[in-house]
Design goal:
SRR1-like, SRR1-like domain-containing protein, two-stranded antiparallel sheet, SRR1L, about 290 residues, Rossmann fold
């Protein structure tokens, strides 16, 4: 699907509620998780990839990603993305595109959780669709066991060692794969990239912002998750469908982008020294904070 005109500015509407995953280390983590049969887990993941490849809804997900990626087509030699030829690639339609990176947070313990395994399999399929090299996909979850980190490395992905709390500053077009993550993680990501220069470089596949808006008391959203509250009026969001037998795994997921033309509608003061989120009023933050130095 190449008609970007079909994209609609995200607006308040009823969405399918789902419980966000908390980026927390499981209290049930035991030594057996550290001694996974890597080959067996890799095969299980690849079998799941093959299973999802046969699902009809996958083509829709791929098409929506490619529509979002088309914003980074290199149309003229003067385009700023042409300054580094090594970052260029030809899309499947032959047009030159800027190379994407990918960041994945909050995947969960995929060796023991079926939902997390399916979400990892979908990530691998989307990386292929977006022509993103496996090594350029950076994954992190404090719930990963050492064995799971070895599995991800065996698959070719790059495992991050630092808890960024979602505060990842983009310098090039980046896909963020954030399935069932908490609001604080999205809010932190938006804050770190809160500028007209950075936000248009971001594609998110994760929780629908309009769904978050519908399910959260407005005053609390504005108070605690102000960047989501502001972004929902200017982002462009396309809901991603999923079959009923996978509803608990992929429900309420959207592709979210931030066109510069929409961002320019916000007052200039919006971008001036945005304060870092603090979350003093949040009892259930749904994110693991990195350890502070004493």
């Amino acid at each position: 699907m190449s008609d970007t005109g079909e994209w609609q500015v995200a607006r308040r509407r009823k969405g399918v509620a789902r419980k966000s995953k908390s980026l927390q280390v499981s209290s049930n983590s035991t030594s057996w998780q550290e001694q996974l049969d890597i080959g067996k887990i890799v095969k299980r993941i690849r079998d799941t990839v093959s299973e999802l490849r046969c699902e009809e809804f996958l083509q829709e997900w791929k098409e929506h990603l490619l529509v979002a990626r088309s914003a980074f087509l290199l149309k003229t030699p003067e385009n700023k993305f042409t300054r580094n030829p090594s970052d260029q690639q030809k899309g499947r339609d032959g047009r030159l595109c800027q190379q994407l990176e990918c960041v994945c947070y909050g995947l969960g313990s995929f060796s023991s959780c079926v939902s997390a395994r399916y979400q990892l399999a979908m990530l691998l399929l989307l990386l292929d669709a977006g022509q993103i090299p496996l090594k350029d996909c950076f994954v992190y979850d404090p719930a990963f066991s050492s064995g799971e980190r070895d599995v991800l490395t065996e698959l070719g992905l790059t495992v991050l060692t630092e808890n960024e709390e979602g505060k990842h500053l983009v310098t090039k077009p980046t896909l963020f794969y954030l399935m069932h993550c908490g609001k604080a993680l999205y809010n932190n990501l938006l804050w770190k990239n809160w500028s007209i220069r950075c936000l248009p470089l971001i594609i998110i596949i994760g929780n629908s912002f309009s769904g978050i808006w519908d399910r959260t008391i407005e005053r609390e959203l504005k108070r605690d998750y102000g960047y989501i509250s502001q972004a929902v009026s200017v982002c462009e969001e396309r809901q991603l469908s999923c079959p009923s037998h996978l509803i608990s795994i992929f429900s309420d997921t959207a592709v979210i982008t931030f066109p510069a033309s929409n961002l320019n509608r916000l007052p200039q003061s919006t971008w001036t020294e945005p304060p870092e989120p603090q979350y003093q009023h949040c009892s259930d933050l749904e994110i693991t904070l990195r350890a502070t130095q004493s």
